[in-house]
Amino acid sequence: MKSIVKIFGLISIILVVACKEETSNEAIAFETQMKKTIQIHDDVMPKMSSINNLISKLEAEKNELEAKEDSDSDEIKIYQSAINNLKEGHDLMMSWMKSFSNSFSRAEINSGLSTKNQDSIKAKLNLLDAQYESAQNMKNSINQALENAERILAN
After folding, report:
1. Angle at 27 between CA 14 and CA 20, to 5 degrees
2. What is the model's pTM?
3. pLDDT score, position 6
4. What distance, in Å, lies between the first and last C-alpha atoms of the chain?
5. What is the phi-psi region of residue 134: left when phi exceeds 0, alpha when psi lies from -120 to 50, beta otherwise?
6. Given this model, what pLDDT does residue 117 score?
7. Cβ(128)–Cβ(27) below 8 Å
8. Which of 48, 151, 37 is nearest to 92 (CA)?
9. pLDDT at position 36, please?
10. Dist. CA 27–CA 17, nearest whole Å
11. Where are the beta strands (DSSP E) in 2-101?
């Protein structure tokens, strides 16, 4: 009787191990890429308040320049360009977040993919790669706009 129990126990363990589905390389790549993409967002999001503050400062200084009788139109254009770049950076972040949330469910963002279908996983990974690239571009645009605005205000 003990040997029958041992045999059933051994068979059960073998079946559990044999039936366990391995996480595919694509699913692992998805989780890794998701973490990198979210990290870009998390790094850039705190800068949104700086964007708004810099826009206010630039607009105030631009208004002062415009109020002067001998205002320099080229300098005013520099301020307006910096303001536009900051606004564009802000808009890029907002549109990226909307596109990202439309592309992935909360569960996919937080827990990875639940599907085991390799074609679905590859399609989601390709979509995530595009979102990652878009996030990188958004980050670069925002950082350049911030640096430019700070440089203008420092002069």
Report:
1. 10
2. 0.81
3. 56
4. 90
5. alpha
6. 87
7. no
8. 48
9. 97
10. 20
11. none
Residues 6+ positions from 38 with CB-CB distance below 8 Å: 109
Q: How far is CA 146 from the centre of its chain?
A: 18
Residue 17: the pLDDT is: 47
What pLDDT is attached to residue 12? 55
Mark the ranges of the chain whose per-residue pLDDT is less than 70: 1-23
Q: How far apart are CA 50 and CA 104, in angstroms?
A: 28
Compute CA distances 103 → 35, 70, 107, whole Å: 15, 52, 12
| DSSP three-state, residue 45 | coil
Phi-psi region of 105 (alpha: psi -120 to 50; beta: other; left: phi over 0): beta
Give the pLDDT of residue 18: 47
The contacts of residue 146 (CB under 8 Å, 6+ apart) are 47, 50, 51, 54, 86, 89
